[in-house]
Design a protein that fits this description.
The protein has 237 residues and is mostly beta strands. The protein has one helix at residues 6-18; strands spanning 22-25, 34-35, 39-40, 46-54, 67-75, 83-86, 94-100, 106-113, 125-132, 142-143, 151-152, 156-157, 162-171, 183-192, 194-196, 202-204. This is Vitelline membrane outer layer protein 1.
């Protein structure tokens, strides 16, 4: 009969806890480009904020790409800044406001996508919103500062007691004189909530502490966006 040490038992328990990690992917309203590699938060930390890279409206008869990339800010209960991660990044536009759910975590997302436009200019993904564990209503969200073409696709949520811990993006490369779209889809990994204590031990986190109605902290002058209508703004193309 084999004997297991306390360390071996703890390791096996940890493997059992983390085996249920899942991926959540935006519905492929558009599907141009290649998937980049997954970029992950350090073990035991999770996404607490996000930032969007957006090309502003370029005017009539000029190619628009709208949303180009998504950046995640990772943290844990002891450190709010363990890492900043992003997958493949489109080349156009600039990074906007940083939106933070600290001390909560991101547990779902939704993309605003413009469907195929035929002979007109395609932009694909325009904006993103994220669901936070510390908002008073689970249907509340924080919306980014992207553009408003298209409509919101189906929301994607982590399981209970899981938070976003990794990101992978599908980005169309520069098409030269042809129509560019850049970011098309996003895939997130949801990880079970584990807490790495300062002494290095790992325990199952108490998600009840993340369900309290705590304020959302928004950086760089950004504002929270709670549920709105899905009407598309009438902007010239």
């Amino acid at each position: 009969m084999k004997m297991f040490s306390a360390t071996s038992f703890a390791l096996l328990s940890l493997i059992a806890v983390t085996a249920a990690n899942i991926n959540i992917t935006s519905p492929p309203v558009t599907n141009w480009g290649l998937w980049g590699t997954f970029q992950r938060c350090p073990f035991g930390s999770y996404a607490q904020g996000f930032q969007l890279k957006t090309e502003p409206y370029q005017g009539l008869f000029t190619d628009d790409t709208a949303l180009n990339s998504v950046k995640l800010f990772c943290g844990d209960p002891f450190r709010p800044d363990t890492a900043v991660i992003t997958s493949t990044e489109g080349q156009f536009g600039s990074w906007g406001n940083i939106y933070s759910c600290f001390p909560g975590y991101l547990n779902g997302f939704q993309l605003r996508v413009e469907e195929y436009q035929g002979n007109s200019d395609d932009t694909a993904t325009n904006n993103a919103r994220f669901y936070c564990s510390n908002l008073p209503n689970p249907n509340d969200y924080v919306e980014g500062d992207g553009l408003s073409y298209g409509s919101w696709s189906q929301e994607q949520r982590c399981y209970s007691s899981q938070y976003i811990c990794a990101i992978q993006t599908q980005v169309e490369p520069n098409m030269g004189d042809d129509d560019d779209t850049m970011l098309n889809n996003v895939r997130m990994e949801c990880c079970d909530y584990l807490v790495t204590a300062p002494n290095g031990s790992v325990v199952q986190g108490n998600t009840e502490t993340q369900k309290k109605s705590l304020p959302v902290i928004l950086l760089a002058g950004s504002k929270p966006n709670f549920p709105q209508t899905d009407e598309t703004e009438n902007m010239p193309r």
